[in-house]
Write a structure and sequence with these properties.
Structural class: alpha+beta
Shape: globular
Number of strands: 6
CATH architecture: Roll
CATH superfamily: Hotdog Thioesterase
Radius of gyration: 17 Å
Helix content: 25-40%
CATH topology: Thiol Ester Dehydrase, Chain A
Distance between the termini: 38 Å
Order of helices and strands: HEHHEEEEEHH
Oligomer: single chain
Largest sheet: 6 strands, antiparallel
């Protein structure tokens, strides 16, 4: 089940703080609840990704995108994730999610998400996403213009560029039959 209460908390915080538009990092503190656990009694690997959705939502609210997205009837779409799990997270453990935009190309925005328990990182993920409206993608430049972003362009880290090349290769090989002999 989607963490609607946590999402409401993120939105409520954004409404109360009245952030100004711009690109900044997001930090959300929360606890691991029973509905977050898998059969091994630690945070379910899919739930990590759901919590990272909240980080992107918080980034949207902090940089003024919620009003823009609502007005233009844009909706966010995740386009891929690369994740590394470093340590398990357990029931009632307090965690902090740090999310930030790390760059973009003409189509995608790229995000970094780090989940910490105390000083220890439990997981790191890189995701990409975009916005769509009426059957078409909103370009990164359209999005930045709508935010009135006037900062420098962010160069994608080398590992993201390699990930995109691997993704391109995976797409190329999708139609090849699998030999399970």
């Amino acid at each position: 089940m989607y963490p609607f209460l946590r999402a409401g908390r993120v939105l409520s915080r954004a409404i109360k703080t009245h952030r100004s538009p711009g690109i900044r990092a997001s930090e959300i503190t929360m606890r691991i609840w029973p509905n977050d656990l898998d059969t091994n009694a630690h945070l379910n690997n899919g739930r990590y990704l759901t919590l990272m959705d909240l980080g992107r939502f918080d980034l949207m609210t902090q940089c003024g995108l919620v009003r823009i997205v609502t007005k233009n009837r844009w909706f966010p779409v995740a386009g891929g994730v690369m994740v590394r799990f470093e340590r398990p997270l357990h029931l009632f453990e307090k965690i902090m999610l740090r999310s930030q935009i790390i760059g973009w190309d003409e189509k995608w925005l790229f995000f970094s998400h780090d989940l910490f328990s105390g000083a220890h990182r439990a997981a790191r993920a890189t995701t990409r996403g975009l916005f769509r409206s009426r059957g078409q993608s909103i370009s990164s430049q359209q999005l930045l213009d709508a935010m009135n972003y006037d900062g420098a362009s962010m160069v994608l880290p080398e590992y993201v560029q390699q990930w995109m090349e691997i993704d391109r290769l995976m797409t190329q090989n999708q139609s090849e039959p699998v030999d399970n002999r």
